[in-house]
């Protein structure tokens, strides 16, 4: 099963709310299934974004899902869609790199950021999702703050992030799953320049 097929299978089997199918159709019209997850860190490769999205979802389910208290639909929404802000966000360019064996300069492809809609990270994902379907307050907060202290606005937000994590356990579960996926589970999917 390809990453696209796996994503669509998880999405269609778990997300049933109004607008979900239209959102999925929109994703299919974008670079979501081929885009990287970053420029040089985790998932800095073709299909890295969909690979990361599936990894975060799977980590959430493996580590944090409690069938008595958690919603499988909310976990699928948050895990699969938390980085929607990266749709149409990266472009491929080239740079000159010296081949250490031959001593010759060679052009190598790499990813750059081309953010046509600089709205922030988590809040941009919430905005894009809500163009198609409504999020619960807990889902919106979880996606908004999934970056934790890595979010540019976390430093200036006062105690907002702490209050969000205290009030909404889903936000903590998404953040922890994103961190584990990025720094532990996806180490071999990066193309880090050394």
Distance between the termini: 32 Å
What percentage of amino acids are in beta strands?
5-15%
Q: How many beta-strand runs?
A: 2
Physical arrangement of strands within the biggest beta sheet? 1-2
What order do the helices and strands follow?
HHHHEEHHHH
Low-confidence stretches: 190-194
Q: Indicate the structural class.
A: mainly alpha
**Biggest sheet architecture:** 2 strands, antiparallel
Count up the helices: 8
- The amount of helix comes to 40-55%
Q: What overall geometry do the principal axes of the alpha carbons give?
A: globular
Q: Can you give the mean pLDDT?
A: 89
Gyration radius from CA atoms, angstroms? 17 Å
Structure description:
The structure is a single chain. The chain is mostly helical and 194 residues long. It contains eight helices and two strands. The protein has a two-stranded antiparallel ribbon. Helix 4 (72-81) packs across helix 8 (169-185). 38% of the residues are buried. The model is unreliable at 190-194 (pLDDT under 50).
List keywords for this structure.
globular; 8 helices; mainly alpha; two-stranded antiparallel sheet; 194 residues
Question: Which helices and strands occur, and which strands form pairs?
Answer:
Elements lengths: L2 H12 L5 H9 L19 H17 L7 H10 L8 E9 L6 E9 L8 H9 L6 H8 L15 H8 L1 H17 L9
Antiparallel strand pairs: 1-2
Helix pairs in contact: 1-3, 1-4, 3-4, 3-8, 4-8, 6-8, 7-8
Sum this structure up briefly.
The protein is mostly helical. The chain has helices at residues 3-14, 20-28, 48-64, 72-81, 122-130, 137-144, 160-167, 169-185; strands at 90-98, 105-113.
């Amino acid at each position: 099963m390809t990453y696209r097929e796996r994503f669509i299978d998880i999405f269609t089997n778990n997300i049933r709310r109004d607008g979900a199918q239209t959102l999925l159709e929109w994703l299919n019209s974008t670079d979501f299934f081929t885009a990287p997850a970053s420029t040089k860190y985790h998932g800095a490769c073709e299909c890295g974004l969909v690979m990361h999205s599936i990894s975060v979802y799977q980590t959430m389910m493996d580590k944090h899902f409690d069938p008595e208290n958690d919603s499988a639909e909310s976990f699928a929404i948050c895990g699969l869609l938390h980085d929607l802000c990266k749709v149409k966000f990266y472009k491929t360019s080239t740079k000159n790199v010296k081949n250490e064996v031959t001593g010759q300069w060679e052009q190598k492809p790499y990813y750059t950021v081309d953010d046509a809609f600089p709205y922030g990270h988590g809040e941009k994902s919430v905005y894009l999702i809500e163009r198609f379907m409504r999020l619960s307050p807990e889902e919106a907060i979880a996606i908004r703050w999934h970056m934790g202290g890595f979010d540019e606005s976390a430093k200036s937000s006062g105690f907002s992030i702490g209050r969000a994590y205290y009030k909404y356990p889903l936000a903590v579960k998404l953040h922890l799953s994103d961190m584990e996926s990025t720094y532990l589970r996806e180490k071999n999917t990066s193309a880090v320049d050394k």
